[in-house]
Amino acid sequence: MWLNLSATQYPEAANGRDKLAKEMTLEQIAKAQRLSSEFVQKQKSPSQTVTSPLSAPVSVEPVRPDTPEEAAAKAEYIKNYVPVEHFTVTTVSEDHSPWGQGTIVNKGGETLAAIVVTIFLFDANNQVVKKIDLSNESLLPGYSRPFTVKIDGPPVWSGPAVALVTGITY
């Protein structure tokens, strides 16, 4: 929990958190992320924060919409430099809930202030049956960050799942 909180202010703490996460179970990671979110929520008023399933809450400020040129540049940056790697969905034996996990990578030269990852669940006919948007904190150039999230999907979901970075903020 403390490494997750530290990583929001000190990017170098993310390395320690990421190494520790490799030794933890999905349940332990989810609990640490939940505790981080709860801790930060107690420190700020609810009107100033948004809970992120991947990390501690982040401050919300009014945002100017991107111009078409800015949106195109961000889409190009995502396409070329910000993949989700090693995405898998596993079922935890205790409650049979699906969990998604993967790694967000910033291979470009820009510091990303925020990242949106979207998970798409498909049925057997390759139709999208659920779309889940997840927010994540900043990511420095050349850094990566694993993520784990419980997927509250359709009860009869049985198709593939894909995770993509669908939004960034510089």
Biggest sheet, strands in spatial order? Answer: 3-4-7
Strand content: 25-35%
Shape: globular
Percent range of helical residues: 25-40%
CATH topology: Immunoglobulin-like
* Structural class by sheet pairing and helices: alpha+beta
Order of helices and strands: HHHEEHEEEEEE
Oligomer: single chain
Q: Please give the radius of gyration in angstroms.
A: 16 Å
* Overall number of strands: 8
Description:
The protein has 170 residues and is an alpha+beta fold. It has one domain: Immunoglobulin-like, CATH 2.60.40. 28% of the residues lie in helices and 32% in strands. The protein has a 3-stranded antiparallel beta sheet with strand order 3-4-7. A hairpin with a 5-residue loop joins strand 5 and strand 6. The protein is globular. The two termini are 26 Å apart.
